[in-house]
Design brief:
This protein is of the alpha+beta class. The chain is built from 14 helices and eleven strands.
């Protein structure tokens, strides 16, 4: 599959291109040494209210609502109930494993040549292997292990690069770089295991909690790049298989902002990576809750602390590297999650405006919009125009907001757009910003599709490239709003 190819943003503008800008001769040589390609990125966020998915939940219509993408970024909040046991004692990773399985089932469904690697299994598996079954009914829904299952889906560490920065033409330097990076690679968590074509059922049975894979890993169109759980927050990133060799500098950082300002019932997971020569950072967060006056300041503080405390490890061995170590240093940033900002209106006034579908008036009272416009949070970030109803809070298995069915004012919640996706950086354009209509939880899922420019090094003149990333001069965009919108069911 070819990457999503369109005219670059500079080509779509009538202003002068790179040649018309004031660049030094070295800058010109660097600009000529790279080409700009566009890739499509699908981003989704969903607070699932502590509920574990069942085998009837189909994510295919949700993930493929706007067609296929090159990268899939799937963020969840409250995948486990935020109980004292989950927060303070042992993290339950069984729901995370089920979400991984459902995502892989949706993305790789066209290539499910089921059980092709397990044809010679033992007798107790024979009837199971003969009849293809939907992945939702497979054994990983009995007692899945996130660690083992994620290894099954994950891209081969021999292909996924730790670093793709050139370090010069010296063979000695290249050998030293390879040796050091191989040592660094061995330290990356959960990267060493991959089910290969020679894997047998007997091998799998030596691990009591390993489910039999329902597909040949070599036939998967999308591979898992990274996944991370922190109590109820869960983030995973998937890429087209042919893009995996061009992805590097993959690092994960998490910041707890929950109880005592430290624990992981609130906070964020951030994943940093580079695609070709462009750096990306994806941040999935669950910010402070509450709809009392002043609670928005707690959420602002969470964002500021996340930006301050997130630190990515140095895994690039190039001494001249400018590899980003903080969120704000990346070329492209996408921030998703249950940001928990509410509407600064009474429940009665909010409901009155909702009955008239007057979302524009409601959005004028949206705390996130107010705080961003005042420069108190998410400076430099953009958000597409919201053309969908508030995503929180719904009654169980219903299209009615909780306040419409709950008599107790204490349990009533004012409808709000808690679930949001924002971005920062040049060379990124939002194509859609929509919500799903699943009744699975008290939140509706939200997704966005982006077209992102990526610098690809030319094969002819890579002697000039001695750094992590060189950003070609581009035009600034004051606004980046969706070009189309749609509603869908799944």
């Amino acid at each position: 599959m070819e990457p999503f190819m369109r005219k670059s943003f500079s080509e779509r503008e009538t202003s002068p291109g790179i040649e018309g800008l004031n660049l030094s001769s070295f800058d010109h040589s660097m600009a000529q040494d790279t080409e700009i390609r566009e890739f499509r990125i699908f981003v989704a966020t969903w607070n699932v209210g502590g509920k574990t998915p069942n085998n009837a939940l189909n994510l295919e219509d949700f993930l493929l609502v706007e067609g296929s993408a090159d990268l899939y970024v799937c963020g969840f909040q409250e995948i486990v109930p935020l109980s004292a046991g989950n927060i303070l004692v042992v993290e339950d990773n069984e729901p995370a494993a089920k979400w991984l399985a459902l995502i892989s089932q949706a993305l790789n469904k066209p290539h499910e040549t089921l059980y092709s690697t397990l044809d010679s299994g033992p007798a107790n598996y024979s009837s199971f292997l003969k009849e293809p079954k939907p992945a939702g009914s497979l054994h990983f829904f009995q007692k899945p292990s996130l660690k083992i299952l994620s290894r099954t889906f994950r891209a081969d560490s021999r292909i996924l690069k730790t670093c793709n920065c050139p370090v010069g033409n010296s063979p000695v330097l290249e050998r030293r770089r390879t040796r050091k990076l191989s040592n660094s690679q061995s330290k990356l968590e959960d990267r060493s295991f991959l089910l290969g074509p020679d894997t047998t059922v007997d091998d799998l049975l030596s691990f009591p909690d390993v489910p039999p894979p329902p597909w040949d890993p070599s036939q998967m169109s999308y591979r898992l790049l990274a996944s991370k759980q922190m109590v109820g927050i869960f983030l995973s990133i998937w890429a087209r298989k042919d893009l995996v060799p061009h992805i590097a500098h993959l690092r994960i950082s998490s910041v707890g902002r929950g109880i005592m300002g430290r624990l992981g019932n609130k906070g964020c997971i951030s994943i940093s990576m580079s695609l070709h020569q462009t750096s990306f950072c994806f941040v999935c967060s669950h910010l402070a809750s509450g709809e009392k006056e002043g609670d928005e300041l707690k959420r602002n503080a969470d964002v500021l602390e996340i930006l301050k405390s997130t630190q990515f490890s140095k895994i690039c061995k190039n001494p001249d590297s400018r590899g980003p170590e903080r969120i704000i240093d990346h070329d492209r940033i996408i921030w998703l999650g249950d940001l928990n900002y509410r509407v600064s209106l009474s429940y009665e006034n909010t409901l009155f405006l909702l009955e008239d579908n007057d979302w524009d008036t409601l959005l004028e009272k949206d705390q996130l919009n107010i705080e961003r416009e005042a420069g108190r949070v998410f400076t430099g970030f953009k958000e597409g125009r919201i053309l969908f109803a508030p995503t929180y809070k719904y009654s169980e298995n219903s299209d009615s907001y909780a306040g419409e069915t709950v008599k107790s004012k204490r349990k009533r919640r004012t409808p709000a757009w808690c679930d949001r996706i924002l971005w920062r950086g040049n060379g990124i354009e939002q194509l859609s910003y929509i919500r799903g209509e699943s009744r699975f939880s008290d939140h509706r899922p939200v997704c966005a599709v982006f077209a992102a420019e990526v610098e690809v090094r030319s094969r002819s003149k890579n002697r000039y490239r001695n750094g992590y990333s060189y950003t070609v001069a581009r035009l600034e965009y004051d606004e980046c709003i969706p070009q189309r919108h749609s509603f869908y069911d799944f």
